[in-house]
Design goal:
The complex is a heterodimer. By secondary structure, chain A is of the alpha/beta class. Chain A has 6 helices and 15 strands. By secondary structure, chain B is α/β, with parallel strands linked by helices. Classes of the chains: A alpha/beta, B alpha/beta. The structure holds flavin-adenine dinucleotide (FAD) and adenosine monophosphate. The site of adenosine monophosphate has 24 residues of chain A, from helix 1, strand 6, helix 3, strand 8 and helix 4.
């Protein structure tokens, strides 16, 4: 089975978010970059599927040269080759067009992504790529097994889950507990250095959206402490000050 | 400019988040049409009308009675081509994938996690898991907008909505994925729909202590939630876990009990309107993000709070 895993290069989950240039650029000062946590689950499941049934794993990122260490990390975790589409990932539509083109040329049986990126949190790219390729797209996928050309999976819904059968090829947005994150071992890290990483140029598609500027949420006005013995006071505040109960 | 709102049903009843989508559609276009799939209980079209729609397109085809991402996307795109340039929907496990596919089918620009009404062509979208916003310009003249809970307050003084049958083309290609069975809690308030959320963390020591959380939630008509370690240890189901890797909620009130307030937890709850924190440790980081705080032992404070609320309710 040929698997394509699409990964994002995103700020670590503990990063402080700030902007520069009149709030038009993300401030990278002191920020550590990681493989998106959901993409990491997708990659981990891909490695398990490959171990069980053979095949190959390609990882793909749409990003500028600075994302290559993140792609190398994915190679160390177990991908066989990496592809970088050399462009800033302006918006979901633009990114989806790039992924769809690579996917079309590669003829993959399974395209795994994260349920959402943790920078733009759109949860859009899997659906868009699925639609562009005429494939089913499902997300968020919590368990995944492959039987012949069918994916048997569970998808989380509000208050529970759905059990599904999806014809391959398909695009799936993954989340835990689909697999445990894999930490690269020494052999993986060594071999990642020599695995192929190809750089391709983007299509000419224009993004569908553009960011005018960024904003931080207004600062909280500070906490009002209430004595643990005085829950009537808390109820009073919630009822008459906040007006939420 | 006319707007279509995708309205989801939960066991025959319109979801509250979908009524927000209807009101939002009315606010951006001056009028709205709702599209609904499957059988509706009595009185639901009236609710949709009061929320701001003048028309309901009702799809009753048996093949589309239960949720199907690809087929719903095709049907909605077909409806949009009947004269709508905007689609508004609420963020959900069905709405998200449908919105992405419709955007491609109709050449529309898509904005997700939108937290307030559009200003011109600019949507305020929540990014970095609630830690920031992007003022996002939607290019072109067609738009798909997926809203977060509490992006608008549901209108209750709209008119009545006429119900019109809508029979979209059925494409066999849209049935490559099928749901074989569903496992779902019934009777509970669904977490993403809830106005009030009561959430428990590792401070509660074990699943056997969730009774008092459920009791408080029941008293408030709230949904229950939890931190990640709690669902990792199987004290509570995964779909209750909020945060960076879980559900993102934006209720009017979030009550956190025995949760430290790690940055990854806050990421899922920081757009709540009000936050109450109950923790025995004054140094817990959650207090910095709280509006009201109580330092104390949850096992004593929570039952007292529940009693105080009951006393108020009379
Ligand atoms: C990549 C990544 C993603 C993550 N995603 C998430 C996520 O989505 N959601 C999430 O929640 N976490 C997430 N985490 C984990 C997060 O970092 C914290 O570890 C977690 O939120 C801690 O859960 P907790 O507050 O329940 O437990 P703890 O940190 O153990 O806190 C327990 C709290 O209970 C208090 N307490 C103890 N006893 C009592 C008592 N009797 N009465 C009152 N208070 C009491 C303590 O003072 C303490 O503050 C993530 C971590 C990583 C690395
Ligand atoms: N720039 C990118 N390069 C490769 N994959 C991406 C990129 N952006 C998003 N994806 C994939 O699409 C998923 C959903 O992203 P999003 O729609 O941005 O929430 C992510 O988890 C990734 O798997």
């Amino acid at each position: 089975m040929k698997i394509l895993v699409c990964i994002t290069h995103v700020p670590d989950t503990t990063s402080k978010i700030a902007f520069t240039d009149n709030s038009t650029k993300f401030d990278q000062t002191g920020v550590q970059y990681i493989i998106g946590p959901y993409d990491d689950y997708a990659l981990a499941r891909a490695v398990e599927l490959k171990e069980a049934t053979g095949g190959s794993i390609s990882v793909l990122n749409v990003g500028e040269a600075e994302t290559e260490p993140t792609l190398r990390k994915a190679l160390a975790i177990g991908a066989d080759d990496a592809i970088r589409v050399n462009a800033f990932p302006t918006d979901a539509f633009f990114v989806s067009k790039q992924i769809a083109k690579v996917a079309e040329e590669g003829g993959y049986d399974l395209i795994l992504m994260g349920r959402e990126s943790i920078d733009f949190n759109g949860g859009q790219v899997h659906g868009m790529v699925g639609e562009l390729l005429g494939m089913p797209s499902m997300s968020p996928v919590m368990t995944l097994d492959i039987e012949g050309n069918t994916a048997k999976l569970t998808r989380e819904i509000e208050g529970g889950k759905e059990f599904m059968e999806v014809k391959l090829p398909a695009v799936l947005g993954c989340q835990e507990p689909i697999a445990e994150w894999k930490i690269p071992n020494m052999r993986g890290i060594m071999s990642a250095r020599t695995k192929p990483l190809s750089v391709v140029e983007p299509t000419g598609d224009a993004p569908a959206t553009t960011v005018d500027n960024f904003e931080l949420p207004p600062a909280k006005k500070g906490v009002t402490m209430v004595d643990a013995e005085n829950m009537d006071e808390l109820v009073n505040l919630l009822k008459n000050e906040a007006k939420v109960i | 400019m006319s707007a279509l709102a995708f309205v989801e049903l939960d066991e025959g009843k319109v979801k509250k988040s979908s009524l927000e989508a209807v009101t939002y559609a009315n606010a951006v276009a001056g009028d709205a049409t709702a599209i609904v799939f499957g059988s509706m209980d009595d009185g639901q079209a009236d609710l949709i009308g009061s929320a701001g729609a003048s028309k309901v397109l009702h799809v009753t085809d048996e093949k589309l009675a239960s949720p199907n991402i690809m087929a719903y996307a095709s049907a909605i795109a077909e409806a949009m081509n009947g004269g709508y340039d905007q689609l508004i929907l609420a963020k959900s496990s069905l709405g998200d994938p449908v919105s992405a596919r419709v955007a491609i089918k109709t050449n529309a620009a898509l904005a997700a996690n939108v937290s307030e009404p559009l200003s011109g062509d600019v949507a305020k979208t929540s990014i970095y898991t609630g830690k920031a916003f992007a003022n996002t310009k939607l290019n072109g003249n067609r738009k798909v907008i997926s809203i977060k809970k509490n992006a608008v307050e549901i209108k209750t003084d709209g008119g009545s909505a006429s119900v019109e049958a809508f029979s979209p083309t059925i494409n066999n290609g849209d049935f490559k994925a099928k749901v074989t069975s569903t496992e779902k809690a019934t009777g509970d308030v669904l977490l993403p729909e809830a106005d009030i959320v009561v959430s428990g963390g590792r401070g509660l020591k074990g699943p056997e202590n969730w009774g008092m959380i459920e009791e408080l939630a029941k008293t408030l008509g709230a949904a229950t939630a939890c931190s990640k370690p709690v669902s990792d240890m199987d004290w509570r189901p995964h779909h209750e876990h909020v945060g960076q890797t879980g559900i993102k909620v934006s209720p009017t009130l979030y009550i956190a009990v025995g949760i430290s307030g790690a940055i990854q937890h806050l990421a899922g709850v920081n757009s709540s309107k009000y936050i109450v924190v109950i923790n025995k440790d004054l140094e817990a980081p959650f207090f910095k993000a709280a509006d009201y705080g109580v330092v104390g032992d949850a096992f004593e404070v929570v039952p007292k709070l529940t009693e105080a609320i009951k006393a108020q309710q009379g």
